[in-house]
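Review this fold:
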Amino acid sequence: MTFSKNQEIVLTIDDIGVDGEGIGHIDGYTFFVKEALPGETIRALVLKVNKNYGFAKMLELIEKSEDRVNPACEYASRCGGCTLMHLSYEKQLIYKEQKVKNCLVRIGGWDRDFIDSVTEPIIGMEDPYHYRNKAQFPVAMGRDGKVNIGFYAERSHNIIDSTDCHIQDEISCQIAGIVREWITKYRIRPYNEVDGNGLVRHIVTRVGYYSGHVMACLVVTKEKVPHIDELVEELKKISGMTCISLNINPKKTNKILGDKLINLYGAGYIEDSIKDIRFRISPLSFYQVNPVQTQKLYSTALSFAGLTGEETVWDMYCGIGTISLFLAQKAGKVLGIEIVPEAIEDAKVNAQINNIDNAQFICGASEDINEILADSAAEEFLNPDVIVVDPPRKGCDKKLIDTIIRTNPEKVVYVSCDPATLARDTALLREGGYKIEKVKACDMFGMSGHVETVCLLSR
């Protein structure tokens, strides 16, 4: 059977894809349908047809899944942030755990029964709403001449004009509302992505979950911002406001933050903690967005490492030292590697303010670790017992995998934000003589299809 664009079809959904989309089949041909759930029968409009699969849009829900719920947010179907808000949270957790398993089997080539045997139950959230401690609100002028502040619609740069987000901290939404009033009152021109003109690009906020500290950063194209003092005075009224700054980004780019920061109020950073460890966080720092789940994630990584107080540990892609300092509580010594110089400086400060002296940090590419150590005064770290990796979504560089295998640590603890690249990398480590011992998913991003995973491999 052949299909064509704009054709209407009746489809039964039998699975969920890696991005949370429904999957259905007609005569062996696969369709992907946003917001459709397994067990549902739908009438759909074909949007795109490829050789073996196509994409369709749901027009009518003929038979509804018992797992379907009404989304808490009216914009959930349009916004790109909450692709699973129509699925009960209990089923979201099942889906995410299964997603990790499927990737390890299909991409990693691990045996299904084996993966089932080493997988521990997923760590769910007690409250999957208002959990994000960081927000990035794009700003633009709407066609009606009103200021648009909100979030991008899925796979576009069209802004959904709303700051009432159900997964953001409510203080972040309050800050965005104050900036909206300021822009409107003083007729400040938002940035235009098409022609590169305008002043205000983004509003970036952070809220310390445990400290109560609040940060507001306005991303602008020029250093001189009219009526900025008035905005600062309004923002200072927010309880916990600790840091207000300008970030200058004059480039015509999709990158949110520029390189230059101008501090307008406070110390230029906020602090927060994970368990007993304090972290200093600047507008440019990477810090996990879900503080409650981060503590559980890092506790799992620490548990999987099984440290006794004697081990030498490498922490690859260490950022501002979050995992490194967690590990340092139980290890003999820890070496953190990160390619971003500012992050390494933050990591050193974080070690200092926590009086942790058995963690060192070196700036460089993780895959070049052996060359870096050979040229530094850190030769004591040459033979690690445990290597921890927490790479970006693209996974570990192949050179780093080769380095891990050559270095031959007893254990590798892999913290992953993408099950597909985790699966690929564990397959490479298997070729080097490593075997998965434990796998545990952690839901850091409720209402979305993303999932973090901790995986322990040993020789």
The chain has a mean pLDDT of 95.
